[in-house]
Amino acid sequence: FEGMKALQLVALVATVVLAGADEFDQVRNVLAQGVLNEVTPGLAALVANEKGILFMEAFGNFTYGKESAVADRPMTTDSTFDMASLTKVLASTTAVMQFYERGQIGLDWKVMDEQLLGRKFGENGKEDIAVENLLLHNAGYPPDPVPSYSSSEFGCPATHAEHPPLVPSCHSQIFSSLLNQTLINPIGEVYLYSDLSFITIMFLVGKLAEQHGYVSEGDLVPGCPALMSGDDGPVPDYTCYYEAYVRKYVVEAAGMATSGFLPPREHWAWIAPTWFDDSYRHVHLQGQVSDENAYANGGISGHAGLFSNVRDVHELLYSLNFEPHRIGISEKTVDLFVTPKNLTQSSRALGWDTNTAPNEYKGCSSLSSDTFTHTGYTGTEVCNDRKRGLFTVLLTNRCYPDKTGQMDTVHTLRQDFNAAVANLFPLPSQ
């Protein structure tokens, strides 16, 4: 959010319809019913193709209008959401694609190579993990760090507080833990979705950003240190360099005017709230990253922490789908990263998931199998149907007020939304 334009604090209208009113009625009905059924207090949705935005509307409110610690307000197409795991693809994977395009990282490069994280990373059986393994979630990692970075057992300096501050005081400890991380599966042999893969990618991107001079100390967000402790003395704080790189070369390059990590406090009231955290932060979360491990890392991570809205997500997805050169990527590189790698193991492409047969969740529903996609825990999803030449964005705060609430019903809402879009744009007969 550093240097971002001011959010529109008052929206004259909550909906923007850029196609015929009747044409998208079924899509509109699905979304309105989702709010009526309390799948989510509110949502914003978008459908676009190469010609531009076809549909963009918001429904509902920030809360259900009942007693709440956060102020209710109408959801608009400018409302900002906690992207959760969409951070993995919108921020981290895009950054890796850029470094790959420049020849500054290879998919077969070992993470323990000196130009990446170095020999220390190779301990505890990790010596053969390649960049591709991280992107495919088959590096052998467990799903999450154990103990979690937010736990008293892990011992981040701020954890003992009743309301832990969002500070970068645990960067060195988390980096050291990642270097010492153990595996639970053979490298490359088992697909297991893991936040640790993208925490690793964060450190890779941060190191490459500093090493190749894309980010200087002056680019770092205020309060984010330039150095952290390493085994052999101070090293660049790769978390801070990652944030600055994503801000400069992904967010700003794509024209995402109101997106980023660490939204300023004065904008929190205009961000869709997530859940009441009664075990770690002891507050109702709004404007602060909901993911506990990202929070413990000061609000920045490769797996979670990005905030955005439907307009900004459109800008980045439009670039990836139709004009990748705008963000320093070739069509060939996009093709490589969004094509499933090994369907006998999983539906995963590089960073992205796909709407192919191994994908049992099928949030993109009847959009084509040539669709690359991802979801976020807070209720976010994007689907990019290359066969139809369109993409959809659905942002919800289904996790308000309960972290695990409506996980099944938001799945149905995602499917119904994308099925309605697919019905509007049938594929040509074979």
Automatic annotation (TrEMBL):
This is Beta-lactamase-related domain-containing protein. Residues 30-409 form the Beta-lactamase-related domain. GO terms for molecular function: hydrolase activity. Residues 1-21 form the signal peptide. Coiled coil: none annotated. The keyword Transcription does not apply. InterPro entries: Beta-lactam-related, Beta-lactam/transpept-like, Diverse_Enzym_Activities. Keywords: Hydrolase, Signal.
